[in-house]
Please model this.
Amino acid sequence: MFSKQYLLLLALLNVLCAPVAYAQPINIVTSQWVPYVDYNQENRGLAVEIVTSALERKGYQLNISVDDWPRALEGLKLGLFDASCAIWKSSDREEDLLFSEPYLKNKISFIKKKTLQLNYSQLSDLRGYLIGVVRDYAYGDVFLKSKDLIKIPSNHIVQNLIKLKEGKIELTLGDERAINHELNKFFPNGMADFEFIEPPLEYKKLYFAVSKSNRLADKIISDFNQSIKEMKKDGSYAKILKKYDFDPTHTVAH
Model:
């Protein structure tokens, strides 16, 4: 028989040696980005559901806040929040954030009105056209640094789609699934008036990222990566994807 003193000592050691992650929730900030982040839905969107499932199975508690993306990103970089559940990687962001392995993929394409006649095969073909962009989106260095393109900034893709419909811009771009969702929501009877052009600008990998100011950043990222591998192996990852009816070309294969 173990003595009461031994059992108490063992219990105390278990508490002291337990991962710090259990003691303090991870404060995650993101922006509304349907269908990846959707606080009008029960599971809050594809990206949120994958990330929360991955972290909760490792014992983490999560607090998730939704804000305007420029403010969310700034707060994350300053360490006011611990992490973001759906973010693209860029050299600028890597200065302040530690990124996971990618867990989804976004197809970034240009969209226009069908009435616009356009021969497009490369970015130089878009010289002279008014292109709506979203502030602080990491579209990619080639596009962002191109001085030959006319970029008209807005705060949200919906604003650009409205401008596109009204003829104030000639093109805009973004994730195809996100754009399709917004078109279906705001212009359900006019979706046939728009079309994506090929080839896409790029496929972008989607990440979970933690502020480097969080002393547990390395452990959190490691736990997340391991959990995603486990979810893919046991089928829970595919089950979430199926729920949102995502096809395999929008996921990252390993």
